[in-house]
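#lab-general

N.A. 3:47 PM
ok so I finally got the sequence cleaned up, no stray characters, all 196 residues accounted for. can someone with queue access submit it? mine expired

B.Y. 3:52 PM
send it over

N.A. 3:53 PM
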Amino acid sequence: MQELGGNVFLLDYSEQSLRMIRTLANADTARMILGDAIDCPFRDGTFDVVFHQGLLEHFPVPGPLLRENNRVLKRGGFLIVDVPQTFHFYTLMKHLLMSFGVWFGGWERQFTLDSLRNLLTVMGFEPVREYGDWSRPGIVYKIIRQLLLRLGICLPMYPKYVSRLTEAYYRLQNRLRRKKIFLYTVLSIGVIARKV
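B.Y. 4:20 PM
back already:
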């Protein structure tokens, strides 16, 4: 968005997260705002686009968050919501680890495309597009990385070396995800919805 001339605001309730973002992002062009997503410090109808990834699934009652998203969006503005989807190994693993109290993300839910679309519709949005993607790097690499971290071995989150096989696999994923059936195999799903 910044590259296209948009004004970008990053909202988080954690000062530590905002400090981390400042070190990773171009803090000169994105405004960092300390605040609560269910009580945003913005006027009604402020934004053309609201995007969140990895947020909605942490709300046992999602209504207050989505009502606040609706409030700060301009009429006709877009909400982009990205969440873990139900039909994936990640979801099974997550629930197993949550049952032992060792899941890094605390309590977390997941959605199907239908449940996410229906929720957004009930909250005053019109879904216009859906999408999904697999984890990159893959979930197996991330699990191995976490296990090695416990042994003091730190692999990069995003390895710089990408083999021809990996590149071919990513190209195959890009072709497959254009087919709706494969949206039921991806790690995360998303819906782009218009405020009505």
